[in-house]
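note to self: dont lose this again. the chain is below, predicted strucutre after it. 350 aa total, dont forget to put it in the shared folder this time
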Amino acid sequence: MASDELDFEELLKKYDYNFQKGDLVKGLVCGYDGQGVMVDIGAKTIAVVPTREAADKDENVETKLEKGKEYEFLIIREEDEDGKFLLSRKKVDFAYAWKELEKAKAADETILGTIAGIVKGGVLVEISGVRGFVPSSQLRSKETDLEVGGKLELKILTLDSQQNNFILSNKKVYEDSAVEARKNVFSQIEPGQVVKGDVVRITDFGAFIDLGGIDGLLPLSQLSWRWIDHPTDILKVGDKIDVEVIAVDHDKQRVSLSLKNLEPDPWLEAEKQIKEGDKVEGTVTRIKHFGAFVEVFPGVEALLPHAEVVELQNKKECILEVGNKIETYILKFNPTDKRIALTVEEPKSE
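---
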């Protein structure tokens, strides 16, 4: 056999390959032409990466695939009659990006997505070249408050490469954060602590105070030592206040708070200054069917029974109303139970 024939056989052996469609191969970027990017993958002829398979519309092909560098490619068409293979770089990027997304979903990680479009029913986002969808129900903000190019913190709800189904949630990021915050607060909070909070909601029976991840209840009875008709008498939404923790229910994740516990107990001072038989002047704070409550010392209410109210009205020829100032006598004083009974007539000394 002639030496040139031997050389040709050796050359054929050098290119003894079995590349097939779907194979992942490494290739060296040789240059660029009108078709796309030329790549040496070790075949008889240079393989081609069409421009559409090399980079996105807004990307520069020569920057994405630099000449002289080696990259991984996917064979999307086996060699034609000229011996050329068609390759894709975008599909490789997509496959790697999808794997990273699968890892993020498994770890329940928060990822950052770019808003690619706002459509009916939600928002299209792009993450590492992969398009996903965030339904309106999973958005913390309204679609009208978002804009293309903006960023969203997201968690993956569903990820199915076979169906190309990629659904995300923006709301879940904050919900999970709130759950974690609640756990942290409950692990640190205990009765007797004085904590700072923001008034976030007011109801007839009290106010809810945000303690940094959980809302504690400040009941109407714990607002002040004085009688309060409604929490709005002394609070408004947005107020920043100090409160004392008086009870923590870890099972139901509830916290009860007190504002009045941060003030001196007026009954202790009243005990020093008031005794049974004393004549006192007070202000009517409430009138009930069983009697009238009278503030006889700052923050200390006493009860004037109904029969005594009637006697006072007959004596004064008037109808007792809230806000009236009246003079009465201390009939009974029980500082331990915080109870005082009043009478219109001066008690007879024994």
